[in-house]
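Example 3.2
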Amino acid sequence: MAISRNRRLASLVRDSAGSVSADRLTTVIDNTIEPETLNFATDVRGAGQNAHWLWSWNPTTLPYGRAPISLSNEGEIPLYKAGTYQLDNFAAYNTNGNSTQTHSIKLKWIEEPGDANLVDWVTYDSSNTVAFEGVTSTPQKTQRLTWQVPTTITLPTLNTSTQTYNIGAETGAYTFSGIATGSNPTLGPLYRGNTYNFVLDSTTSGHPFYLTTDSNGEWSQGTYGGEYTSGVTNSRGAGSSGTDATVTFVVPADAPDTLDYQCGNHQAMNGTLTIKDLEVDSSGDGEIFIYFQHAQEQHKTQVRIKESPRIVPQMCLTWNGTKGKYVPQDLRNYMDLTPSFVTRVREEIGDRSVDSAATLNLIDSDYVSARVSGVDSGSVSAIVDSDYVSARVGSTEQHTTLTQNGTLYVLNGSARWYAPRAVTIQSMAAYVQTAPVGSSLSLRVNKNGSSIQTPTITTGNTSGSLTGLSDTMNAGDYLTVDITAVGSSTAGADLNLVIVYK
């Protein structure tokens, strides 16, 4: 007699005493999750301080927990070990939205502009012209980055670099351009061992530039309180007519975590430098951080490198004939790997759906707009008009359903249902999901503002109807519905009023 797979599985995972053995489970179950594969996109839609990276992607498989996003300003991007990734940067060659300049992107071990310390897994390609859902439906040239995150990451020995800040002056501020922008911006991080050149143009004449450990509290004109000179060349430099001046800072190993830059003559002309060790950032629990980085230091997005996940809730085990083991799988994954299942879903949808040619204009926004006006959270709103459907799918049923969701309260309805032609109202039936208690629920149906019927649902019941009606309406006449009573001790809830006409 054949033995079922489940019984065979039970025999394989139990030891001689009949207990489930963890060691034996590994012979039939592979609990590793397939590495993530993600194609995603980024763009820039703002200018100046609003020029953020905006990210778009669709979900991958369940363990990676990605919700769909479109042009979202993300503070952090998760990537997973062993994952394969493709990023299309639309901002590299296009100025979409309010963007005024192009923005290339690099994946770097640390947050700094330039090409030093690039992550070495990445290939850069600018030969692609593509569209991406939520970004653009018209293909655009992109900067494409492709990479696979190693299963085991070996941190590199980082290289020192030289960076240059271009500085001018205006009333009350140093003005920066190049790798930092704005008036008196916070700079950094500056890394210990790196070289930073502060190039001061001729507009800085009379504005001697120096570094200080004083955060402006000890400032006095011309005294240079707290001046920091370790690793600094040409402290107090300033441009002159037609000539730039350069203050150079080779950041020493013992530099403090924070310094200020300051004008010796004007207290308001100052800003902060943040200083860090030249090393890859980490969370302290084994996760490392790398950075998507633009050519300007403020324009970056942190990336958290995460371990590949294990089985998570809502996953099941399915048999993998290649591995000869049960493996975790979610429904999305199952559909990708099971064409027959997808085909059967499509067949079921096809069997139960209305022919697409008949439903092409089933919902017409102009029609709905013309018949439902002034809808708000306190209005009874028209939802389905079968006369409109009848004209498109051949139905003979003619009715309209007006709804009010949630717990009911007394109100004068403002939503209107317009008669599509000359009609005669035959009946009205009111339904609620929660019955009124203590007294009846009462409605008032108005034609062109005047009451024509008053349907009710008596206490303790969930429906009430009016039949044998003969109220006539011409094309363009409209109905509104008022709620005049809802029940005294318990209010009715979730109302549907069905109006049948011919």
